[in-house]
Amino acid sequence: MNRHNSRPIVMCLSGHDPIGGAGLQADIEAIAAQQCHAAPAITALTIQDTVNVSDFRVLDHDWIVAQARTILNDVPVAAIKLGMLGSSAMVRTACEVIHMTPDTPVVCDPVLRAEGGGSLGEDDVGYVLREELLPLAFVVTPNLPEARIMAELPEGTADECADVLLKHCRNLLITGGHGPENELHNRLYLADGSRHTIIQQRLPGKYHGSGCTLASALAGRLALGEELGSAVRSALDYTWRTLRDAETPGRGQYIPRRFPIR
């Protein structure tokens, strides 16, 4: 029997990862795990594995806009998740897409570097993200290295980066795990001026796709109507479990297991 699809829909603009640990596959799996439906539009193709990224190619503006317009003309989109954009031109394309549905909450994961260290964006992407896209986002979810790039503070602390970035965005989540601390200190900065630190147990190893998983889970929680502070905590808890249960299919980093082990 056919049944009406009542799951909230999250449109994703992200790159494709052929190993399946990050990018659109991570988006689709994490969103589905929140009982939402992902509608993906591919922004870039990459050559990468569980060790690192070696190359990428950003797709054509008209193709991205056509994909997004087709999605928006057909289904109700409850949230938008932005991942790898790769170039200043693609950042501006994403802004164009956001203006097509201005009341839809946008979760921006500013993907600038792979966990292995390889670049996933042109040199000026961080600046254009900060100046043009962040003001359109509901919440931005960089890790500390990405926050430093966008804030132009190579050695800045999370609070120092936040002081710069909050001049451009409403809500900001700077994730932990890229420093020497024994615990994960995830720092949430809200539009009302409040600041919250959400501490989690640090897991051993390095993970491929953890940022994509978190941002997509957060977009799913917002699509379900969850309030931002609660949605952040739900997404962080979910992401931590996917890392706890992660697998090692290749020669490099762990890949989050985004569906529960049965």
From TrEMBL:
Pathway of this protein?
Answer: Cofactor biosynthesis; thiamine diphosphate biosynthesis
Q: Which GO terms describe its cellular component?
A: cytosol
State any GO BP term from the record: thiamine biosynthetic process
Q: Which UniProt keywords apply?
A: Kinase, Transferase
Q: Which InterPro entries match?
A: HMP/HMP-P_kinase_dom, PM/HMP-P_kinase-1, Ribokinase-like
Keyword Magnesium on entry: no
What terms describe the molecular function in GO for this protein? hydroxymethylpyrimidine kinase activity; phosphomethylpyrimidine kinase activity
User: What sequence ranges are listed for the domain Pyridoxamine kinase/Phosphomethylpyrimidine kinase?
Assistant: 17-253
Tell me its EC number(s), please.
2.7.1.49
Keyword check for rRNA processing:
no
Q: What is the name attached to this protein's record?
A: hydroxymethylpyrimidine kinase
Q: Which organism is it from?
A: Thiopseudomonas denitrificans
